[in-house]
Amino acid sequence: MRNAFRSAIAANRFGLGARPGELAAIGENGPDWLRAQLLAPAAILAAETLRSSQQILTDAFALRRQIEAARKQAGGTAAAAQAQEVVQQRLPQFLRPIYAAEVTARLANAVSTDRPFLERLTQFWTNHFALSVDKQFLPGIAGSFEREAIRPHVLGNFSDMLLAVETHPAMLLYLDNHLSVGPHSPAALRAAGRGARRRIGINENLAREILELHTLGVGGGYSQHDVTTFAEVITGWTIGGEGNGPNSYVAPGRFAFRAELHEPGAKFVLGRRYRDDGFAQGVAVLRDIARERATARFIATKLTRHFIDDEPPASAVGQLADAYVRSGGHLPTVYRALIDAREAWAQPLTKYKTPSDYIVSSYRGLSLPVDSTHAPIAPFEVLGQRTWQPGSPAGWPDRSADWDGASALMKRIQWADALGARLASQRDAVQLAPELLGANLSEATRSAVGHAASAAQSLTLLLAAPEFMRR
Amino acid sequence: MSRMQRREFLNLTALAAGGAFLTSRVVFARPEESEARLVVVILRGALDGLAAVPPYGDRDYAGLRRDFALRAPAEKGGALALDGFFGLHPSLAFLGQCYAARELAVFHALASPYRDRSHFDGQDVLESGSPRPHASQTGWLNRALAAAPARGQREAGVALGQNVPLVMRGPAAVASWSPSRLTALDDDTLARLTDLYAGDALLSTRLADALASNAIAAENGGDGAMSAISNAPPANNAPAANNARYAEVVRAAAGFLRQADGPRVAVFDTTGWDTHANEGGAEGQLAGRLAALDGGLAALKQGLGPAWGHTAVLLITEFGRTAAINGTRGTDHGTATMALLVGGAVAGGRVISDWPGLSSRALYQGRDLAPTLDLRSVLKGLLEEHVGVPAPALEKTVFPDSREAKPLRGLLRS
Questions:
Q1: How far apart are CA B249 and CA B180, in angstroms?
Q2: Domain span at residue A277?
Q3: Are B117 and A208 an interchain contact pair (Cβ–Cβ within 8 Å)?
Q4: CA distances from B380 to A73, B248, B288 (A)
Q5: Residues A385, A389, A394, A398: what is their CA dihedral angle, to the nearest 10 degrees?
Q6: Three-state DSSP class for B319?
Q7: Tally of CA atoms within 13 A in the half-sphere of B154 that contains its CB
């Protein structure tokens, strides 16, 4: 009995929900099934149709130049205004299908993968380093950000992922660092010399969120002074082809360090002195912050909350933080500590599924095909978790109370009901119930599914069952 | 399902769901039409109080805001006139009319007790009513409703959204409602689900709450009457999808509050106020969002009809933004900001502020508008006089450790 629970926990809490046959494949040893997923190669998502951030941004920047040119030309006539309107639409028209293709590829992979733990970890990190597609250009590069900055490092070292994220064009655009200029940088001094009316200076958004959301966590021992100084350290971290002035020496759409925007001088961050060696100054700060005990605890707390309980048990947090510190932020070592935590296996169904978890586990459980001609954007939107759009750099929340609203529940049930109606003749809920829920299947659910008035209703009741709402 | 059938069905499900259902609801009753209504709007992302309510009369203001500084009311593109020192952003036309009609009270240089600059902790303090972040899993508004005299509604309050925000979580039963384009379930499936959830405290309560809210929405005539306010005025520059969602939320809030036996308190939130770059001045990014907000408030008034006369709408945000424009033509996270209280029940036409000034010496930590008014003073006055929350409960359960924040009374028409 105990092992049966462990396979259900492995597949549903650590994985993305069981596919038919998965619980049998896991067999007696859930923890080993999870550990094996950490050995294989990185979590790369390869699809020939998907383009790199650099390619996408190169085209997007070119479109923006067209839009700006059209705006300057629009001479006030109605025809000119109309023409400008048409040009204006080109950027969203360019970005929308890219977003759709990325969402489709991501879901197709999540539904079909036989390493669902790795995929859940990928989604965890994307949400940890959250960006949101409600900002210019982001719909086009949120997917490539995950493929380029997150996936290669999910089985690597935290500090490598951190550096990849903070130098990725998507993050620089999202948190405005591409526009941040050191007040004493050559560029700012030149502007002042010309008597520029516009004030040139730093934008502290990225620096603050790195400290607060990506590494130390709020209360992790940094001050407003650290935020401001760190923002100065990473001035000049920008994107080729973006901003004013010449960038001919950097390819557009790629990370660029531009020394003429960088605030010169040695700086103190968190009590440590960093000499001014350009780009390397910021890299050194990131490396040091990644090693802080507060960072270890912050990451450990978030992982424990995500995988074990809304209120993370202190002992498990301590074990994960120790593993982080001992291994120098080697992530698979931290994941193994998570698998080893007693609390992870103590009780089934501690977490209420997010809408995304609910949708993905339904797709997996019912072996729903992901249709590449009709991008699966709507279910995530309707159930309240549009892909890569948490609306804030804090990412989606990770507690039951954030997701278990009455209206949200009703929408889940209605969506399940629509699926039930669509698949009634093709899926047998009575047969599926033990395949998906294993030892968690309750007598009440078994009976409700078995005595339903129709095959469609039977599927609805299975997907709406209390044990399918949780993981 | 017809109206009668749905009501009947609700009674049946109430019996089926047993204790969990009964504790989450109270007896049906028909309260007075004139009963006070409260709407709380949370502006997430830290709204720039110096842009929404510009102190154009402060001699340091124009220097800090440079080309984004709003001009005096008499000038072209200038602020809307308030009291000769403060103005309103020109996008806030409806609010300007409310001020003239003495239905808008403006608070400035106000802040919650939170003094750091994290959105997420700032919103936690704003909503929980605790002086420290993450000290409470419940919100001040819910605890206030729990302490207010029972009035017989099915739910005391409603959150317009799929989930209930922290400010509205807690012991008092509240509804959450959001528009759905999905097909409603048939009665038989709902009855079976109610059975299936009987042993699950959370899901049985949530399902019952959802059914009750849908019943209120249906009594409103479903989409028909809810859309009595046809369209909120279009806003410049703001994304169309956000505006459509916002218009729907406002319509729903009015629909719930209009109901004779519906909830008396509604809460919803809006986002997009985190203007780090290219904030704009009289026109631009923030101007567009303010126009959308203003249009929604106008639609709310229209939708409430006569109930507007008994309504107070409170607009609050987690903190303000830096006094000076930053290097990317925006503003970074700051401290004090403004709050607005608008509605037919409000004793308005005034700006309530102990203005600290914007000189570099007056700024908080040399960068932010300094706080001189505690948000909890406003909330206490409002909850006591408008919602009828007893003063001892305000001090003890609604705003723990808040003795220094004395209630600000007289905010409402007597």
A1: 12
A2: 177-291
A3: yes
A4: 56, 30, 32
A5: 10
A6: coil
A7: 24
For residue A144, the model assigns a pLDDT of 98
- Per the model's pLDDT, the better-predicted residue between A164 and B278 turns out to be A164
DSSP-derived secondary structure letter, B364: B
Share of chain A above pLDDT 90, in %: 81
A405 and B159 within 8 Å at the Cβ level: the answer is yes
Q: Report how far residue A453's alpha carbon sits from residue B410's, in angstroms, rounded to the nearest whole number.
A: 60
Residue numbers in A near B321 (CB within 8 A):
none
Residue A215 maps to a domain: yes
The number of distinct structural domains making up chain A is 1
Tell me, yes or no, whether B173 lies in a domain.
Answer: yes
Chain A: closest CA distance from residue B333 (Å): 8
Q: How many CA atoms lie within 13 A of B266 on its CB side?
A: 27
Residue A240 lies in a domain: yes
Instruction: Indicate the burial class of B215 (C-beta count within 10 angstroms; 0-12, 13-18, 19 or more).
Output: middle
User: Which candidate in A206, A225, A409 is best for mutational testing of the B interface (most B CBs within 10 A)?
Assistant: A409
Identify all chain A residues contacting B193, using CB atoms and an 8 Å cutoff. Answer: 413, 461, 464
Q: How many domains does chain B have?
A: 1
- Reading the block at residue B286, the tokens are 């923030």
Residues of chain B positioned with their CB less than 8 A from the CB of A197: 66-67
- The pLDDT of residue B251 is 87
For chain A, positions 83-142, list CB contacts with chain B under 8 A. Answer: 134
Is residue B406 domain-resident?
no
Task: Write down the mean pLDDT value for chain B.
Answer: 86
CB contact under 8 A, A203 and B332: yes
Q: Kindly state the helix (H) or strand (E) to which residue A12 belongs, with its residue range.
A: none
Closest to B114 measured CA to CA, from B101, B100, B94, B128: B128
CATH number for B372: 3.40.720
Question: Could you report the per-residue pLDDT of B60-94, keeping only the tens digit for each?
Answer: 999 999 999 999 999 988 999 999 999 999 999 99
Q: Between chains, do A205 and B214 touch, taking CB under 8 Å as contact?
A: no
Calculate how close chain A gets to B196, using CA atoms only, in Å. Answer: 6
Phi-psi region of B18 (alpha: psi -120 to 50; beta: other; left: phi over 0): left
C-alpha gyration radius of chain B:
22
- Model pTM above 0.80: yes
The tens digit of pLDDT for each residue in A37-80 reads: 999 788 888 877 899 999 999 999 999 888 888 877 766 677 77
- In angstroms, the CA B164 to CA A358 distance is 19
What value, to the nearest 5°, has the Cα angle with vertex B150 and ends B145 and B154? 85
The backbone region for B161, taken as left when phi is positive above 0, alpha when psi lies in -120 to 50, beta otherwise, is left
Kindly determine whether residue B196 and residue A179, on different chains, have CB atoms separated by under 8 Å: no
Q: Find residues 32-71 of chain A whose CB sits inside 8 Å of chain B.
A: none
Q: Enumerate the residues of chain B whose CB falls inside 8 A of the CB of residue A384.
A: 162-163
Could you give the maximum distance between any two Cα atoms of chain A, in Å?
82
Report strand pairing: B350-352 vs B311-317: unpaired
Is A223 a domain residue? Answer: yes
B159-203 residue pLDDT tens = 998 889 999 999 998 888 887 778 889 999 999 999 999 999 999
Domain that holds residue B379: 3-28+35-398
User: What is the ipTM, given to two decimal places?
Assistant: 0.92
CB A327 within 8 A of CB A334: yes
Q: Is residue A250 part of a domain?
A: yes
Q: Which residues of B touch A176 (CB under 8 A)?
A: 276-277, 328, 330
On chain B, the residues whose CB falls within 8 A of the CB of A183 are 327
Could you tell me which chain B residue has the CA closest to the CA of A404?
A: B163
Please state, as a whole number, how many other Cβ atoms lie within 10 Å of the Cβ of residue A249. 8
> Helices marked H in B259-368 — which ranges?
285-304
**Closest to A465 (Cα-Cα) out of A377, A370, A385, A349:** A349
